[in-house]
Write a structure and sequence with these properties.
It is built from four helices and eight strands. With 145 residues, it is an alpha/beta fold. β5, α2 and β6 form a beta-alpha-beta unit.
Length: 145
């Protein structure tokens, strides 16, 4: 079960771009990561440029409210705005974990979370849960398919 654009829209009400039926195969915080049907979340300056994320397969992004969008951003490209990207990532992972929890389909394809930002795990005590959840998601993916 992939993460859906509507799942993300339910968490982040401030957005722009076309919000059609889309399924995210990848969620990443690094623009240079190959991210087929990806959701890009630039956690810091080292995350890279939105243009690179799009070139590598991103079909939407979660963006910091106060940060200016690049001029080249396509008007139809879905962007969801938040005040705190680390909180947004945590909410997204928790939502997705609940979404797939209890699903017994052994061949189910799941969204691949490819996170490189180690600071995300150290933001506060709750963020350690992110590492545990991501590990659980990745182990489920290996077992299922």
């Amino acid at each position: 079960m992939f993460l859906a654009l509507q799942d993300v829209a339910g968490l982040f009400h401030n957005s722009k771009g076309i919000q059609d039926d889309m399924w995210f195969h990848t969620v990443t915080d690094h623009a240079q990561t190959v991210q087929p049907k990806g959701l890009f979340i630039p956690m810091n300056e080292g995350s890279g440029e939105l243009l690179d994320a799009i070139a590598n397969g991103a079909i939407a992004a979660i963006w910091e409210q106060e940060r200016e969008l690049p001029r080249y951003t396509p008007s139809q490209f879905p962007i969801f705005f938040t005040n705190d990207l680390a909180d947004a990532m945590r909410e997204l992972i928790m939502l997705y974990s609940k979404k797939i929890d209890g699903d017994t389909n052994k061949q189910m394809e799941i969204t691949n979370f490819k996170l490189t930002n180690k600071m995300l795990l150290n933001k506060n005590k709750q963020t350690y849960d992110i590492a545990v959840i991501i590990d659980k998601l990745m182990n489920n993916k290996e077992r299922r398919g």
